[in-house]
Model the fold of this input.
Amino acid sequence: MTFDLWETLLIDRHEFDSLRNNARINGMHAILSKLGMKITLDALRAAYDQSAVRLTEIWERAESTPVVEQLRMIIKAASQDKFDLPLDPSEIDKLEQAYVDPLFEFPPALNPDAILTLQSMRRRVRKIGLVSNTGRSPGVALRKLMSEHGILRYFDATVFSDEVGCRKPDRRIFEAAMQRLGATAERTIHIGDDPNADIRGAKQSGMLAILFDYPVPEEFKQSPNSLFALSRASQPSDPVVEPDAKVTSLSETLAFLDSLK
Done:
């Protein structure tokens, strides 16, 4: 069994998404100012918002964008190509920290069904894996967040797009997970909330797929720089691949598993 992470095991809040964005921008601005890079806060904010659209376009091609490249994109756009990343690795580390740490200051909530479902699933399946696309937070940070929420210990393998170089729905990220789990596609089930990334991706990889039917909340739709809303808005225009099951709570996946016996 493999799981998606964001909006499946972890549920974000619109206000926290906005607070993280503000914290990233302010943190980056403080560091860049100390380095003598004269970039206004308004210019940095505009470049940050613009990066959401550019990242979504890149991710539509199932390509991965590491955090350091996201930082370069924002700095170059904010300075109109006058500045790039600093040369000192320690200063790059500070920028990365300013960009990533707001995740822990304003963390998404754990799906209330997550722990009980994972505990019960361990008695039903041989291995449990995670297949997750990353946004502004890298896999190393998301594993730490999973650990803080008490769910990392239930997983035999965790695969993140920034670490394998491709994103769902690319079948290679699913294949990487199955290889680490020692599993075959025909005996693996994936659950996630995204009809394209999770359902189309898993089905074209030969897996069964369960849709966690979680619609985009209106607050995210109204936010112009929400990666969540942008990614859902850019779904393919061709017919959606039908999941093998739909659930509105993670615990319902247990009944689906039992029905396969």
Notes: The chain is about 50% helix and 10% strand.
